[in-house]
Structures are given as C-alpha cells and as structure tokens.
C-alpha cells in the first residue's frame, strides 16, 4: 500500500503530493497525521495522508516508508481533503495552507497533549468496613477510605483537596492493594453559562422559515436560504429550531457568529437548548481548550459547533446545516492566506455533504439579496420584531442648521434634550461615533496645514490622554507641535471627533452621569470588551460611548436612546461599498435601542440629511435601499455585476512603483487577450488607478491596479489567467500582492 502525502512545509517548491510506502504494521488511513522522512538526511517531518493506492509507478528504492502515525484517528475527513483541493485552485494557496485551516494549530508540532486525570477507587472484593476498622491507628487512611467509598471513583487530587495530607495515605493503600487507580483522558471544556430561556411558540413567519430550511436541507440545488429579519425579529430562535430538526435527522450543524458577538450570552442560549452537544471554537479559548473542543467534534461527541469564521472548517462527519449569522460582516472574509470567504467554503462543503446553508442578517449583503431575488437563494423574511415590539423611531438632525443657529457643540439641541430625558427616567443611552474615516486630525486654522504621518501620508490622530499624535497605520507617535510647521503661527487645533471628545462633552452637559468608553484604545487589554459590556449591562453607567464595536453584540434592555454623533462620515470613503456599509452600520446601531418593553429612540446627526442612504436608514427600509444601490452598482458595473481583483505594488521609490504598475498592466492585458480572445478581453477592465488611496504606508509608496472582471461565462478562465500571470510575474524586489474581492480598498 502507498500513501500520497502533503508534507507540512510552507513552501511552493514542495506544494505537491509525495508518495510513501505504508509498512504492513502501520494502520494508515486517509486523513492520518503522520511522520515521514523528508529531504536532506531524511529528517522526520509531519505530513497528512490525502490518498491511498495499491501501487506506484515509482521505482521501489525511490520510495521511503511512512515513519509513524501521530494521532491515532485520521485528523482530516475525506470531504475536507476534497475541500482542500478545491481551495488550492480557487484561492491559489498551498495545499498545506488549506489543510492548516482544518486542524487546530496545536495539533501540528505537538504543542498540546491530551490531558490525563488519575482516579482512585476501592479495589473489587475489598470489604471497606473491615479495612476501616483495622486502621484505628491511622485516622488519615480511614478518612481517605470513607471519602473514596462514598464517591465510588474520584480524581486523586480531589481527595487531596478534601483532605490535606491524603497523598501519603493513598500511596500506602495502593501498595496494600486496598485501592486501585486508573488514568483516563479528559476534555478541557470552556466555561459557558447556561442561559435558561422559556421555550417560545414560533410565530407564523418563524415557522415558515424553519420549514424552508427543512426543505433546503434535502434540496441538492437550491440549498441556500437567506433569512432577512430585522434585529430582534427572532432569527436566533429560528436557528435553534432548525438545528433541533437537523439533529433529529441524525445530522450535525455549524453556527458561525462574528467574533465580537461570541459572547457568553449568545453561546449560553445554544447551550441551554443543546447542553453538552455544543462545542465552541474561538480565539479566546486556551490552546488546550481549543484542541479539546476540536477533538470532541472530530470524535463525534459534539453535534453542534459554534464559533467565528474558522469554525466553518469544523470536522463534522454528518454535516447537515451551516448557519451564518450577520452574514454581511466583513470578518467572514479572511485577509490572510488563504483569502477564503466563510460563505463560499460553507457552500462548497455542503456541495459534497448535502445539507442547507442559512445566511441570516437584518442588512444582507447586496450580493446575497441579489441572488435571493434572482431565485438562486430561497428568501425568508421576518418583517417584524417579536411580541409586537416596535422598531425604534429614528430622527434626523441636520447639523448644518444647528451651526447656523449658533450651536457649535458636537451634540445637537435635540440629542441633548433626549439625553436629559433618558437619564431622568433612569434609562441608558448609547453614543456612537464612526471612527473609520473621521478622526481627530490636527490642522492649522491660519494656513490650513494638516499634520500627517511622514511614512504613511495619513492624517495623524490626536490622543488627548497621551498628549501626542499617533498614526493609525504604522503606529508612530509624535508630540503636538506648539506652532504650525508650515506658517509658524500658534494656531494648530484638533478637528474631528474621537470618543474621548464625546465623553468630555457629555460630562460637561451632565456632570453626574457616569459613562463608559469603548474603542481600540480602551480595548488593549484582553477581556476588556466583556468587562465594559457587563459593567454597562449591570447599570454601573448610564451612557456607553463607542465606535463600531458597540454596534452589535449585546442586548441591553434598558437602552432607550441611541445617538449617532456623525452619521455620514463613512459615506465618502474611496470605496464602492461605502453606501452599503453606512446603511448596514446605521441600521445595526439603531437596532440597539428599545430591545425590551420600553420603546427606543434614535437620533442621526448628519451634514447630509438629504442623502438617499441616510433617508433609507431613517426608514429602516432595506428593500428601498437595495433598489437604489443595486441600480448604482449596475450603472457602474460594480459587484455583483463584476468581480474585483486588486494588485498592490509597494516600494521605496515612487518611479519604480509607477513603472512596475504600468508594465504589469500592459503585460497582463496582452496575456488576457491571448488567453480569452479579443471578445473575452472586453469582459475585463483594467483600472490603473496609480496611487492607492493611501499612497504611503510605513515609508513605502503604494500603487494599485484594479481589475474589474465582468460576470460572464468566461469569468473562471479570466481569474485563472490573472492568477497564473501574477505567479509568473511576482517581482522579487518589490512587494506585490494580489487580492480577490479586497475588503478594504485602501
Ligand atoms: P434576532 O436573532 O433576530 O435578533 P432573537 O431570536 O434574539 O432575534 O429574538 C429576540 C427576542 O425575542 C429574544 O429575547 C427571544 O427570546 C424572543 N423571541 C424570539 N422568538 C419568539 C417567539 N416566537 N415568541 C416570543 N418571544 C420570542
Ligand atoms: Zn504612519
């Protein structure tokens, strides 16, 4: 027997299957993690068995033996190996990169071992009462015997905890043959509270969604369901019921939630319903816990995996359902190699295993809704919040009017008034600022000079706490100059908004109100996220001020007011997705208000009150937003009518970068013409953008080439051609990077 093996070395030169002989005595199966002799001196390397075959064309002295099996069970499923082959082509990554997604890092390099616990018990046939009676001179031994005979079987160190000094007594009793001990592997399971929730009778809309998912699970073609439900409409309840049905059919489920929503609250709801059949996978687990949770899934001890992006690879043998909550979140797209999308991986896995994919969101990605309306996905809508709770009322405040009326505070009169009302009633408020694209830059009121980072061509951000300015791309800091570097006048002033400034203004207006702040600065410490949220939820503060981070996650029943300090700041970022992102963000933030009985209010402060996106956000009218935005995309041939690839060039010398970018574009164009014919080449638009929107990072000049591929039947060929070209032309002396569907066009 011969094994095809991928060796665990991250290099394109060894990115292939190597053939090894399987010794008679070694029960090697497909998916096994093994040791093989490799390279100079036949050093042992780790590898993965991806196929077995009876014979080989290679001469027998060219073939070496598999040296040993590492983990006793195959760590990869055959289905996962198929998936890895697909990823190899689709994402143009190494086999080992793809396989590495599917097993915990701790397994490779043997950094974590199974945890063993030694338990003790009374040996069979021993009469405990007699043994106790004859030990009247050894009270510790007597007590040990009592404890163990009451417990039946008990971990050795537990006895020690109950009775200090027990270790010696246990040793004696083991030697005398009164006790016996055994050792067994245990799982390190993360602590998750069980949130008891009354079972709900599903509403008609929820029932129909569960039914659609049931049908999709056995439909080999239309197996994707888009569950569009406003916040609080009971989507999670639908997930729970759909999983219940899936388990009843002896199939298993994966639930993906954005990392930031993987709170004890969320997981606790699933645990309440499914108990130990849940396994949790996320980055905050210890290495041991991660490894053990993965093993519980692999060994069939858990039927539901819940986790962030990478949990989509959970080794379920009887996969029947994958649920992706908040499917519009950009965190489902990996930015590291392989640059996979969890949604695409889920769809690809289910192609092999059968089962349904459910995408849930209050603000689906434009492309998902497009697919739903065109019949590729099944569409389910939960149009209302459960129990007749109203959606919050959204007001728009025109900040230009405020300024004309002489109010140059960052809070409008209306927001101040509603804050006062809210605090007076003992209720809570959330104040949201959109930090991305709107930060406290420093500018001269005399000459207009803006303080920028010398490395990055990005405005420096003023941090009041440190009294320094900081570049958010490279992290360099410098003191605030006392005079303008350009005109030498002392008129430098910080502009824009930061959470600190919002907090300061709030304290001036409401000195007795306590507030909490959540942004990247206050989030440096591990676990501060949960700490701040639980402080707020237990009422230790009346106001929570924050950036994107507070837009989702927890339910705060006592929050009745949400203020969006500047609603339009993301609208004008240089990215075709800015309108979509702004709408999503505003809708998510608004959804934080009035989750419980007390009705919620939302104030959107903006300088662009007439902008359609702001108006749709006010009405919380997703279909209207969709119709507007899809027309814009069509006009511009932006996704979903095309696909974007981007090549970024970076180098110290501007002329080198500029020339390389142009030359690359020319050569690629010729290559595409050759590969696709001139008609096919018309599907492709090369946008030599020149300077990237951020033209310098860390001292390197950046240029970008955007490649827009129209969605025709030639698309796969076009992608392959671009990837092939890129691989052949990677310029060793310059940083180049090819991205597919880049999430950030900076
Ligand atoms: P979503 O995931 O869409 O935000 P949830 O499933 O969390 O919504 O539901 C919001 C709230 O409504 C939760 O407190 C949940 O317990 C409750 N809920 C959900 N479905 C029902 C129902 N059919 N009847 C009563 N309450 C429900
Ligand atoms: Zn910088």
- State mean pLDDT (0 to 100 scale): 85
Assign the CATH topology of the largest domain.
Rossmann fold
Kindly report the name of the CATH homologous superfamily of the largest domain: P-loop containing nucleotide triphosphate hydrolases
Q: What is the CA-CA span between the terminal residues?
A: 52 Å
Helix content class:
25-40%
Structural class: alpha/beta
Q: Give the C-alpha Rg.
A: 30 Å
Bound molecules: adenosine-5'-diphosphate, zinc ion
Strands of the largest sheet, in order across it? 12-13-11-14-15-10-16
Biggest sheet record: 7 strands, parallel
Number of domains: 6
* Residue runs with pLDDT of under 50 for 5 or more positions: none
CATH class value of the largest domain: Alpha Beta
Silhouette: globular
**Binned strand content:** 15-25%
């Amino acid at each position: 027997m011969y094994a095809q093996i991928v060796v665990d070395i991250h290099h394109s030169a060894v990115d292939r299957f190597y053939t090894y002989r399987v010794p008679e005595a070694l029960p090697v199966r497909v998916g096994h993690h093994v040791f093989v002799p490799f390279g100079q001196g036949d050093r042992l390397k780790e590898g993965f068995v991806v196929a077995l075959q009876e014979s080989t064309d290679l001469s027998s002295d060219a073939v070496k033996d598999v040296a040993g099996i590492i983990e006793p069970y195959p760590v990869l499923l055959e289905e996962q190996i198929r998936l890895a082959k697909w990823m190899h082509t689709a994402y143009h990554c190494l086999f080992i990169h793809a396989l590495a997604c599917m097993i915990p890092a701790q397994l490779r390099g043997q950094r974590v071992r199974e945890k063993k616990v030694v338990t003790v018990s009374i040996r069979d046939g021993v009469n405990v009462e007699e043994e106790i009676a004859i030990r009247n001179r050894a009270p510790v031994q007597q007590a040990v015997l009592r404890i163990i005979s009451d417990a039946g079987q008990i971990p050795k160190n537990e006895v020690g905890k109950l009775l200090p000094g027990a270790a010696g007594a246990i040793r004696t009793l083991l030697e005398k043959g009164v006790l016996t001990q055994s050792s067994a592997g245990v799982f390190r399971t993360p602590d998750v509270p069980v949130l008891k929730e009354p079972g709900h009778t599903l509403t008609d809309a929820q029932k129909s969604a569960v039914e659609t998912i049931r049908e999709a699970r056995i439909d080999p073609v239309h197996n994707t369901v888009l569950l569009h439900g406003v916040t609080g409409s009971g989507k999670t309840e639908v997930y729970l019921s759909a999983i219940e049905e899936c388990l009843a059919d002896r199939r298993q489920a994966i639930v993906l939630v954005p990392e930031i929503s993987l709170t004890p609250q969320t997981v606790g709801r699933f645990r309440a319903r499914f108990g130990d059949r849940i396994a949790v996978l996320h980055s905050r687990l210890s290495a041991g816990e991660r490894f053990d949770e993965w093993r519980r899934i692999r060994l069939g001890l858990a039927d539901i995996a819940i986790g962030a992006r990478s949990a989509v690879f959970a080794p379920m043998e009887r996969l029947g359902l994958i649920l992706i909550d908040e499917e519009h979140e950009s965190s489902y797209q990996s930015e590291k190699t392989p640059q996979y999308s969890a949604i695409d991986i889920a769809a690809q896995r289910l192609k092999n295993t059968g089962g349904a994919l459910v995408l849930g969101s209050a603000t689906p990605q434009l492309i998902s809704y497009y697919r739903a309306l065109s019949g590729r996905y099944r569409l389910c809508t939960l149009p209302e919040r459960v129990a007749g709770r109203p959606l919050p009322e959204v007001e728009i405040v025109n900040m230009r009017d405020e300024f004309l009326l002489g109010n140059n505070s960052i809070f409008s009169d209306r927001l101040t008034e509603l804050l006062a009302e809210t605090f007076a009633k003992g209720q809570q408020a959330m104040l949201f600022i959109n930090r991305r694209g709107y930060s406290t830059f420093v500018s001269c009121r005399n000459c207009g000079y803006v303080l920028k980072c010398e490395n990055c061509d990005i405005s420096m951000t003023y941090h009041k706490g440190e009294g320094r300015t900081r570049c958010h791309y490279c992290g360099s800091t410098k003191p605030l100059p006392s005079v303008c570097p350009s005109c030498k006048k002392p008129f430098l002033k910080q502009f824009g908004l930061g959470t600190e400034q919002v907090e300061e203004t709030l304290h001036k207006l409401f000195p007795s109100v306590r507030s909490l702040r959540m942004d990247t600065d206050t989030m440096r410490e591990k676990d501060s996220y949960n700490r701040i949220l639980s402080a707020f939820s237990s009422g230790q503060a009346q106001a929570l001020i924050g950036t994107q981070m507070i837009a989702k996650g927890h339910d705060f029943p006592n929050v009745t007011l949400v203020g969006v300090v500047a609603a339009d700041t993301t609208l004008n970022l240089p990215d075709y997705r800015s309108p979509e992102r702004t709408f999503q963000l505003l809708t998510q933030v608004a959804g934080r208000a009035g989750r419980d009985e007390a009705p919620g209010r939302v104030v959107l402060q903006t300088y662009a009150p007439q902008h359609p996106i702001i108006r749709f956000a006010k009405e919380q009218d997703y279909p209207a937003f969709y119709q507007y935005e899809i027309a814009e995309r069509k006009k511009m041939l932006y996704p979903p009518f095309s696909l974007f690839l981007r090549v970024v060039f970076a180098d110290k010398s501007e002329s080198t970068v500029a020339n390389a970018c142009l030359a690359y574009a020319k050569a690629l164009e010729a290559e595409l013409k050759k590969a696709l014919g001139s008609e096919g080449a018309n599907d492709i638009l090369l946008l030599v953008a020149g300077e990237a929107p951020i033209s310098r990072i860390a001292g390197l000049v950046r240029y970008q080439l955007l490649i827009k591929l129209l969605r025709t039947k030639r698309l796969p060929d076009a992608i392959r051609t671009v990837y092939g070209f890129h691989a052949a032309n990677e310029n060793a002396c310059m940083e180049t990077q090819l991205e597919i569907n880049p999430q950030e066009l900076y």
